[in-house]
From TrEMBL:
Name under which the protein is recorded: 2OG-Fe(II) oxygenase
Residue ranges occupied by any Fe2OG dioxygenase domain in the UniProt entry: 120-233
InterPro entries, sorted: DUF2086, Oxoglu/Fe-dep_dioxygenase_dom
Keywords carried by this UniProt record: Iron, Metal-binding, Oxidoreductase
Superkingdom of the source species: Bacteria
Family of the protein in this entry: Belongs to the iron/ascorbate-dependent oxidoreductase family.
Pfam families: Oxygenase-NA
Length: 234
């Protein structure tokens, strides 16, 4: 049924990129028409539980809305299918970081764990930026239960529908300055990245590197993103 191209991605290559750099592009994840359809949903009040005006919270400028359950079919299938491919990576990261937490193969079972711990609110979100808007560097943590990888999907065409508004990551290694990464996303591309930290192999075993993500200022036009976070929120 799905218009999403999850299963036919090169998951071994994506896994290798995630392991070596903490982020990976997932090219052509959502076709153009489906991207437009998801973005057009922003104006439908019935799809969402909450609207956040970023400036009010010091998060940046622009706004976003959290979907309510049941999620739109496309968002629901993206979330459960992406989880299935990212779950082995998440388990390997936790093993390397000596965390005892392991993630079950099915997203539903992980959500049951979140819900039992009081994290019952859906976290997938739709973001909208206009000229002058930006998203400050942050980490999407919503409680004790954390799935360590998330996916953001660009729904607008850079250079055509908007200018500026680049997806950025910063990585901070222990005792070092932060370094910036600009992800070259096209419309419909996804980026999988570490929510808060990832393991890096050092001479004395794996150590923990911190990541944050955000969006540089949009200069012109309108930019929409779908955020897929796998843990639910309190
Ligand atoms: O708009 C973006 O590209 C960033 C969205 C974001 O922060 C997220 O999906 O968690
Ligand atoms: Fe985010």
């Amino acid at each position: 049924m799905t218009a999403m191209r999850v299963t036919d991605q090169d998951w071994p290559a994506i896994t290798e990129r995630l392991d070596s750099t903490g982020w990976a592009l997932i090219r052509g994840l959502v076709p153009g028409q489906a991207s437009d359809d998801i973005a057009a949903g922003y104006d439908r009040e019935d799809l969402f539980r909450n609207r956040i005006v970023m400036r009010r919270h010091g998060f940046g400028s622009g706004e976003y809305k959290y979907f309510c359950y049941p999620l739109p079919a496309m968002v629901q299938s993206l979330r459960s299918e992406l989880y299935r491919h990212l779950q082995p990576v998440a388990n390997a990261w936790n093993a390397r970081l000596k965390s005892p937490v392991r993630y079950p193969p099915n997203h539903e079972d992980f959500l049951a764990r979140c819900h039992a711990a009081g994290q019952t609110r859906p976290t997938p979100l739709l973001l909208r930026y206009g000229p002058g808007d930006y998203n400050c560097l942050h980490q999407d943590l919503y409680g004790e239960n954390v799935f360590p990888i998330q996916v953001a999907i660009l729904l607008s065409d850079p250079g055509k529908e908007f200018e500026g508004g680049e997806f950025v990551l910063t990585e901070q290694r222990p005792r070092a300055q932060s370094r910036a990464i600009v992800a070259p996303l096209a419309k419909g591309d996804g980026i999988a990245f570490a929510v808060s930290h990832r393991p890096v192999r050092g001479t004395r075993g794996d150590y923990r590197v911190n990541l944050r993500h955000g969006v540089s200022e949009v200069r012109t036009g309108r930019r929409h993103t779908l955020g897929v976070i796998f843990h639910d929120g309190a």
